[in-house]
Amino acid sequence: MKKTKTFPNNFFWGGATAANQCEGGWKEGGKGPSVSDHYTAGSRQVPRKFTREIDPNQSYPSHEAIDMYHHYKEDIVLFAEMGFKMYRLSIAWSRIFPRGDESAPNAEGIEFYRDIFLECKKYKIEPLVTIQHFDMPYHLCEKYNGFADRRVVDYYLNYCRTIFTEYKGLVRYWLTFNEINALSHSFGETLGGGILPKEDADMGNPFANSKTESPEVASRRFTALHHEFLASAKAVKLAHEIDENNRVGCMIAGTCVYPYTCNPDDMLASQQRMNMGNWFCSDVQVRGAYPHYAKRYFQEHNIQVTKEPGDDEILKAGCVDFYSFSYYSSACASADPEMKKTAGNMMGDAVSNPYLKASDWGWMIDPKGLRYFLNEVYARYEVPIMVVENGLGAADTLEPDGSIHDDYRIDYLRWHVEQMAEAIEDGVDLIGYTPWGCIDLVSASTGEMMKRYGFIYVDKDDEGNGTLERIRKDSFYWYQELISSNGESV
């Protein structure tokens, strides 16, 4: 690749984590139980399960995770050593409001995150805070069915008001909901919206698409999503009122969906998947209104979204300042029902691309798809963009001498950084890159430690054994050099 000063001098190089996958300390510091705390461990072969009661005979990964609750200072020092300009993390809502519907916050939780942000400031690392990252207080789900109940919008706003006020001057960049478009797919019902219908004894695998979803369930799901849209829009307005320096973004699970063939039916299938899978949520959050294609989709699926007078005005008044997304893989769409469907990054009805290789977990590796997606997003919205998740989940090996040689991860990341540089040359206003799992953490999709993403190895296995020691991988030093050269060493 031609070495140029493609990346702007103020580019936000960094990394990303989520509280429910790394923090642990699930009962410490006044924290209440969250939805994630009720998910058991799993694997590629055995799906994670949701249990209403905590079963002492089951393993719940979020309860300890990698214990960042007690190791955050050590971890931030390592991030600073790599040269991070930005650290994307989430706040555990149930650490601030243990039940979610209290009027006053938990003081210990407030101070815990204040300490984290002050530690980041010490090393000149800009926090990018996800307000809700597939997690919310369990009480809100048990009593209200989460965002299926409009009252939860107000509880979310009370939470936002608290953290915007408490961390004014320490945090400037916010994301309202992680991968909000997960709720536009049936697999996002539990994790995305915290919807826990009492009639469902076991939600099963939250990442498995349902082919038998009733119009009633779909209507509840899209009404919950509408409530999240309202909550996001109100949060944007509130953030600007509390601090004019605040910048608030949406966060989308980004996936390129190509037509499997040049058959026009495959082209339409691809377009429809891109519309409802990618653009639907960001059209609402960036443009401030439901897109034209949503009306037909709702009609054909007998979906009734419950709205109230004034909702359209709320959405229009709360457009986000920037667009952020995760990118791991691409997929193909086929109109042929006989085509073999293969799983890949939460897209259970997608078709494998014969031109691409897959990761060990079956996700298509497609760096050029990132360039394509960046161009599509920027052409559509013309707002600043951040890639806030990207990475390779792999089973790393700790060598006898304490080293971890993860050239496969370096290759994966280098290929994607090269395509980001191409997109910037194309004219895309890309302002940040925070690869996923900058330190090993619990996999959201499978609930295992074996699927590692980090530049930093954490000594813990799927059975919960290990010292929790932090060890630099080869990719740590590669990323350190990449940042120090502002992308030129790629």
TrEMBL record:
<dbReference type="GO" id="GO:0008706">
    <property type="term" value="F:6-phospho-beta-glucosidase activity"/>
</dbReference>
<dbReference type="GO" id="GO:0016052">
    <property type="term" value="P:carbohydrate catabolic process"/>
</dbReference>
<comment type="similarity">
    <text>Belongs to the glycosyl hydrolase 1 family.</text>
</comment>
<keyword id="KW-0326">Glycosidase</keyword>
<dbReference type="InterPro" id="IPR001360">
    <property type="entry name" value="Glyco_hydro_1"/>
</dbReference>
<dbReference type="InterPro" id="IPR033132">
    <property type="entry name" value="GH_1_N_CS"/>
</dbReference>
<protein>
    <submittedName>
        <fullName>6-phospho-beta-glucosidase</fullName>
        <ecNumber>3.2.1.86</ecNumber>
    </submittedName>
</protein>
<dbReference type="InterPro" id="IPR017853">
    <property type="entry name" value="GH"/>
</dbReference>
<dbReference type="GO" id="GO:0005829">
    <property type="term" value="C:cytosol"/>
</dbReference>
<dbReference type="Pfam" id="PF00232">
    <property type="entry name" value="Glyco_hydro_1"/>
</dbReference>
<keyword id="KW-0378">Hydrolase</keyword>
